[in-house]
């Protein structure tokens, strides 16, 4: 089905022309900064060289009486720093909040082309994206912004998951989506207070064999269905899917497992909420060196990407060539940005 004729037309006279495809960027982690905390904001200059995206958070986790300080703090950190090819994103308040209009009216003219992405919380359907799309076009035209500010939706309500495909298709500004496990759990009535990861109560039991006790039990992944829905919707419309927060900072192993599940299922990155999670995301969302080496063998053995060959006893064909290309393209992006990986991959 073709997009409507005006899908790529600016929504306001003077607004920048929408993109027809996403810029190629390495976004292994979206690092959350609470901009109202001066001590953390002061770390932004060093964070810029450590992470792929710096995000100023204005929504949940910012106390109601600090919303203005967070907005002003974000504008200051955006104006005071040169982000180079590190992304500068902001999570604005919800569209039904008393703060969101001031967020948009203050940030767009203050940061103009420096702002890459606006993360929109609690997206329920395409209508939320349409609203932000139109307001951004008007603010961009008024402020003389020359490149379109992109939108990243958080998938964190039951209705949002029901509408995930229409959200992905709602605007040329759509850059991607993140799974928001805390609000989604509350919205669905899930019985967990954890922020991401597994739950010991969500498991399946092996059949009872004789009277051998205890019966083997296998913990299952609470987020598998939602991540798969999000990845399918994002990939269909050329967006990037992300895993969101992992709240237990004291359990880096479980954080890595959750990130790796998301990576293997097609996610491009995850959120880092604390410095201790940056390297976990870097390790997980940069392709494994052996996978890259094997993928390069496949591409070398099938230069035009067609046919069938055997490599190390495994059949390779057009489909595995495409899988190999995903891995090698990502490795090239990471190597271009992260010289450690350039040496590891030999790229
Ligand atoms: C939790 C907090 C208060 C613990 O902050 P702390 O200072 O108490 O922690 P710490 O371990 O004592 O900090 C150690 C050092 O790291 C620094 N530090 C600490 N955090 C950061 C950071 N993010 N970036 C850079 N530096 C940081 C901190 O300043 C300190 O520096 P120092 O050694 O010089 O004293 C702090 O880490 C924080 O605010 N993190 C962000 C939390 C956040 O944004 N939560 C919302 C996203 S999740 C969500 O919204 C859900 C979702 C999607 O909506 C849904 O599922 O529904
Ligand atoms: Mg939330």
UniProtKB/TrEMBL annotation:
One of its GO terms (biological process) is oxaloacetate metabolic process. Keywords: Lyase, Magnesium, Metal-binding. The keyword Chaperone does not apply. It holds the Pfam family HpcH_HpaI. PANTHER family: CITRATE LYASE SUBUNIT BETA (PTHR32308:SF10), LYASE BETA SUBUNIT, PUTATIVE (AFU_ORTHOLOGUE AFUA_4G13030)-RELATED (PTHR32308). InterPro entries: Aldolase/citrate-lyase_domain, Citrate_lyase_beta/mcl1/mcl2, Pyrv/PenolPyrv_kinase-like_dom, Pyrv_kinase-like_dom_sf. GO terms for molecular function: lyase activity; magnesium ion binding. Residues 48-266 form the HpcH/HpaI aldolase/citrate lyase domain. Belongs to the HpcH/HpaI aldolase family. Mg(2+) binds at residues 156, 183. Substrate binds at residues 91, 156. This is CoA ester lyase. It comes from Roseibium limicola. Its cofactor is Mg(2+). The keyword Magnesium applies.
């Amino acid at each position: 089905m073709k997009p409507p004729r005006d899908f790529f037309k600016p929504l306001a006279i003077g607004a920048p022309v929408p993109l027809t495809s996403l810029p190629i960027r390495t976004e292994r982690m979206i690092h959350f900064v609470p901009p109202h905390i001066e001590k953390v904001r002061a770390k932004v200059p060093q964070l810029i060289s450590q992470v792929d995206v710096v995000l100023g958070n204005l929504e949940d986790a910012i106390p109601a009486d600090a919303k203005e300080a967070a907005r002003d703090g974000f504008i200051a950190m955006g104006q005071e720093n040169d982000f180079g090819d590190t992304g500068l994103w902001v999570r604005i308040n919800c569209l039904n909040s008393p703060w969101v209009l001031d967020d948009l009216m203050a940030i767009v003219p203050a940061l103009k082309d420096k702002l890459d992405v606006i993360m929109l919380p609690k997206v329920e359907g395409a209508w939320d994206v349409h609203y932000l799309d139109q307001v951004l076009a008007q603010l961009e035209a008024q402020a003389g912004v020359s490149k379109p500010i992109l939108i990243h939706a958080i998938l964190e309500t039951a209705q949002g998951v029901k509408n995930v495909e229409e959200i992905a298709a709602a605007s040329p500004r759509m850059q991607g989506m993140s799974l928001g496990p805390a609000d989604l759990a509350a919205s669905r009535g899930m019985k967990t207070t954890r922020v991401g990861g597994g739950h010991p109560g969500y498991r399946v039991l092996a059949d009872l064999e004789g009277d051998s006790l205890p019966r083997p039990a296998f913990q299952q992944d609470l987020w598998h269905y939602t991540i798969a829905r999000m990845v399918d919707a994002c990939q269909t419309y050329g967006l990037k899917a992300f895993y969101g927060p992992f709240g237990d900072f004291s359990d880096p192993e479980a954080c890595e497992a959750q990130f790796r599940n998301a990576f293997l299922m097609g996610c491009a990155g995850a959120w880092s909420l604390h410095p201790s999670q940056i390297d976990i995301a870097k390790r997980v969302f940069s392709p494994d060196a052996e996978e890259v080496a094997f993928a390069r063998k496949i591409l070398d053995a099938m230069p035009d990407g067609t046919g069938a060959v055997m490599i190390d006893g495994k059949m390779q064909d057009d489909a595995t060539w495409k899988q190999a290309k995903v891995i090698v393209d990502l490795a090239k992006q990471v190597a271009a940005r992260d010289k450690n990986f350039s040496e590891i991959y030999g790229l």
